[in-house]
Amino acid sequence: MAAQGRAREEVLSDLRSFKAGDIDWAHGRAPLFVFKGDDQAHEVGREAFFEYFSENALGAKRAFHSVRRMEEEVLDMALDLFHAPESGRGFMTTGGTESIIQAVQTCRDWTREQRGKPGLRGNIVAPESLHPAFDKGARLMDLEIRRAPVGPDFRADVAAMEALIDENTMMLVGSAPCFPYGVIDPIAELGALAQRRGLWLHVDACVGGYLAPFARRIGRDIPDFDFSVPAVTSISADLHKFGFCPKPASTVFYRDPDKARLHAFDFNAWPNGRFSTATIVGTRPAGGVAAAWATMQFLGVEGYERVARELMEFIDRYKAGVGAIDGLQVLGRPHLSIVAFGAQDFDIFAVAERLSAKGWLPGLVQRPKAIHRMMSLLHAPSLDEYLADLRECVTAVRAETAAPSSLEATY
Ligand SMILES: Cc1ncc(COP(=O)(O)O)c(C=O)c1O
After folding, report:
1. How far, in Å, is the centroid of ligand 1 from the Cα of 207?
2. 0.90 cut: is pTM over it?
């Protein structure tokens, strides 16, 4: 650290200059990480965030009643969206990973209590397309994750999952949609399995939670994935992805208060008295809560439907454009805006390498090899440019007999 502080303008100007080497995400060059719905909603979210820049959501219960109120209103809107019964309960967190870890911990504690086995090392049975956030949780809590192969349509294979269940299984998981292929798992069938075997069913709707309901309302083919499926016990859904809210903002929901009671942390055995938080983290930006509230208020159902329509129409054009390039095939039938495509006759990673040289950061799937993008309206304006570059790269790769690409798929 320098002995003397530097001038404000100098510091900020340095900071801005650092961005020069970053990927040009604003023009759709990143295959994930940043999301765009509606420009005005983005501005409202940004202003709301900075309005609550200093407040701490850790103090929502005692000091910042306005933050608590906004949090409750966000959760109420979402409970309604996910067809939760009156008894449903929700919590705001800082991201999909935190929502998932908390749902897993709640399930673990509930299962141990129910089975009278406080030391149970439980396992979670899921399709192999499950997000690694569950493995993070399993590592922290010493649990086991059992991944079953997916079916030929890349959705969870319910029979293959059932074969992995044993007496220590505590949770089944399906995604809506899964990250690698963008398909929604057969949640109703998983629900029937969960009911038959008396298991907790979690739906990871981190990606689709705030897009699928609106895609469905505008007539897209979206299978049941929320609490309308009777066996769904908990749901994780990220506001900072397709809820188009500023980071950090995610949500997690439970059908029953009896299970939700085990979510929060409550502790009193230290000098300072009662410490209770509803999240893993302590200090948490109130800006994320305020911005989520403001974004949802600003867009409303009509706004989210409008964005969903625009986004899904763009995705239709994207899939058609990819499909029209000789040799490329979209994997499965993606339900929303994650699309992966591969090739049978040539190395698709070699295509990704060439796209990378043209400034498109590659998103990759390793099994089967594919190019992957989680798209929002950030990607729409560059569609023609992307497809033209893709076509050129495919033609070049088909013309060469080079060694396979050494690219490694990295999230
Ligand atoms: C299906 C799914 N679940 C969970 C997560 C984790 O979300 P976060 O990065 O907000 O922790 C992601 C992230 O992309 C995801 O795709």
Report:
1. 7
2. yes
